[in-house]
Amino acid sequence: MSVASLSDISVLLVDDITTSRAIMRRLLEGCGIVEIDEAANGAEALEVLQKRRIDVVISDQYMPVMDGTELIDCARRDPRLSSIPFIVVSAGTEQLHIHKTTTCGDVEILTKPVTQTRLQSKLLALLRRA
Question: Buried (b) or exposed (e) across 93-103, using 16+ Cβ within 10 A?
Fold first, then answer.
């Protein structure tokens, strides 16, 4: 991801709850991000990732069909997707779950409720590492 600012990145927002996606979209737009795609689960997200260039994936952890950790695992096995950084949003803070997710590569954890300040901080951390 070689971008100068948050307004230059493309984000894929993955959450099975429409209202949660709408709230997160507003937060992302408040951070200056204008290129936002959406998916309702990990399987849909993989389809989007195959078709478009995405700089960062922000995924809910708990979803039907394919959860956030499974999505990351699938992306890491695909050489074209393996370097995409993820932010996993979770209501839970179970240490084992968080450890499993963060061992999947460049991943940040963001616990709910999400604020624009915390979201922006996680995105900027990913940018600095890229």
Answer: eeeebbeebee
What's at 120, amino acid-wise? Answer: Q
Whether residue 1 lies inside any domain: the answer is no
User: What type of residue is 107?
Assistant: V
Query: pTM for this structure?
Result: 0.89
10-residue stretch averages of pLDDT, the chain, 130 residues long: 73 97 96 95 97 95 90 93 91 56 70 91 84
Residue 80, CB half-sphere, CA atoms under 13 Å: how many?
A: 9
Domain containing 91 equals 7-129
Q: What is the CB neighbour count within 10 angstroms for residue 116?
A: 13
CATH number of residue 39's parent domain: 3.40.50.2300
Token pair 């915390």 is found at 118
Q: Which residues contact 95 (CB under 8 A, 6 or more apart)?
A: none
- The answer to whether the beta carbons of residues 104 and 76 sit under 8 Å apart is yes
